[in-house]
Amino acid sequence: MTVHAPTLRPCAVTETNSRGRRHPEPHPGHRSQFQRDRDRIIHCGAFRRLEYKTQVFINHEGDLYRTRLTHTLEVGQIARTCALALGLNVDLVEAIALAHDLGHTPFGHAGQDALAEQMGELGGFEHNIQSLRVVDRLEARYAEFDGLNLTFETREGLLKRCPPETARQLGPVAARFVSDGQPTLEAQLVNVCDGIAYNSHDVDDGLRSGLITVDRCRQTALLGPLFDEVERAYPALDQRRTIYEVVRRMINVQVHDLIRESAARIDGSAPESVDDVRQLDAPLIAFSPDMAERHEDLKRFLFDHLYRHFRVARMVRKSQGVIRELFGVFLEEPQLMPDQPRRAAELGEQRRGLPGRARAVADYIAGMTDRFAIEEYRRIFRPEERT
Ligand code: MG
Prior knowledge:
By secondary structure, the chain is mainly alpha-helical. It has helices at 33-42, 45-49, 68-86, 90-99, 108-118, 127-138, 152-158, 164-170, 176-179, 185-209, 214-218, 223-233, 239-269, 274-278, 289-307, 310-332, 339-352, 354-366, 370-381. It has two domains: 33-311, Hypothetical protein af1432, CATH 1.10.3210.10; 312-381, no CATH class. Helices cover 63% and strands 0% of the residues. The termini are far apart. Residues 71, 75, 100-101, 194 line the site of magnesium ion (MG).
């Protein structure tokens, strides 16, 4: 079967219906506006640092595990496939996918939770909001503006959750968190594909690390039938390859279900424009109820057996300690930070007092890779280390 790209749906984002960039720029010419977004993201410093940030396993645990970068590429790959099949804007989907984790802290969710805890009374911290902050402000590479000056739709797609008071400060890009609307179908798609990617690669990494077992995986509603299918077709196959065959099928069944269900929902609701989509009560990009249940069941399984495994819990404990100590010491003595974050802390404090200082410290820490955070920790707290 040949896959033909269906024409773009009327409810897909296009250059014509785009709300454009905050700072108007000439058309990129040989690229589309959304390809330009994607290219700017790939060339920014925060993107390169994803290589050394944890997904589940801390970077130095092994070279075969996913990092934030490979996770990001997998989300992009899955989302592109779905966008093409659904007649949505493939370039926009890719841009959102490549930028969706730019605001992630070192040490994965453990780092995010520790930083959120420290910033609780000081304005809060949430990695999706931080991703927007990275592309809007923190990347300082262009002469005429701060940030990457991405299109409205790419920026809007980065926000998954946002408290209403923060949403009001952020303005139109976060309007749906005030008015209870939906993001574009492209943004909805990346959100679901993020879940497909991490469920699948965490099964793969979890099995490789030995923290979860094949026997346990078989008990899940999603993986059980896939192991049966592979073993029926290839009874003599070794376990390693059996696992690969299961993981690829696992991505496939979720992608097919997502495309089928979403196409039916879009056809049923028949939104005629992006703004029609924004005004709907519920997302149109979704799994069928059966697949949604299997997907959730697997998430719960990974939560209980992988993310709470004692070895992962030890990594979590260590890394949260690093984040907490660094945050505490830099907030107390911003002069211990290098020039750029120190100046940002001074400026923040002049403008907004302690929350302004804290924001600069959070930006500095969130931008660190795992290994840089560990090195910083050593330089600050270990007398025998060079400073
Ligand atoms: Mg992600």
